[in-house]
Amino acid sequence: MLGRLRRTTRFDVALALSFAGFGYLAWAAAAGVGRWMLATASPGQGQTPLSDVAKGLFVDGALVLNLAGLAWLCLSLALVVRASRQRCSVSWAWVSSACQMLLAAGAAMLAGVACRAMIPTPPADPQNAWELANSLSLPVMLAVAVLVWVTFLVWLLVERARMDRYGPTLRDGLRTNAYR
To answer: Which stretch of DSSP H or E encloses residue 151?
Structure first.
């Protein structure tokens, strides 16, 4: 069995799809909480260069961080679709989602360590368009991610219904699990 590709079942696809959603939720939670913590803190006595890097990443670069999370979700979902068509192992989708969760946990730890060196203050109002975009990007990206995730879910369900109704086509290849 070593080196052979196991057939991907509907259950495997469902698990990978839900795991991709959880991976993005971990990313969004780490980005949102890290941004909130660092935006409401002012420089303290023990501020380090790490605090400046974390504030630049979470507060000033929040839009880029949120777009990266959405792009990673789309990558994981594309791997799920490839696995559902027996083009690659479903493990690649799981690995992608797990790496997203691990990186989110590391980023949350970075934000926590950086915030520990800072004293909390009330948040300031956004001064320019970039700060406004950074402050609004997480809810927008979260809504877009949920929409993308639900679209992939419905698309895979419709494809499964088509397979159940008409059977595989020549394009589906010889390695489908339609008659399982």
So the answer is: helix 129-166
Per-residue DSSP letter, 125: P
Q: What is the pLDDT of residues 18-28, one digit of tens each?
A: 999 999 999 99
**What DSSP letter does each residue of 33-98 carry, written as one string?**
HHHHHHHTEEE-TT--HHHHHHHIIIIITHHHHHHHHHHHHHHHHHHHHHHHTTSS-THHHHHHHH
- C-alpha span between 14 and 21 (Å, rounded): 11
Provide the residue type at 40 as one letter. T
Query: Is the CB of residue 124 less than 8 Å from the CB of residue 134?
Result: no
| Gyration radius (Cα) of the chain, Å | 21
Which residues are CB-contacts of 22 (< 8 A; sequence separation ≥ 6)? Answer: 97, 101
Tokens of 146: 């949920």
- Which of these, 168, 147, 166, lies nearest to 74 by C-alpha position? 147
pLDDT tens digits, 64-95: 999 999 999 999 999 999 998 888 888 899 89
Question: How many residues can be counted in the chain?
Answer: 180
Q: What backbone torsions phi and psi does residue 176 show, to the nearest 5 degrees?
A: -80, 165
Say how far residue 149 (Cα) sits from the centre of its chain: 10
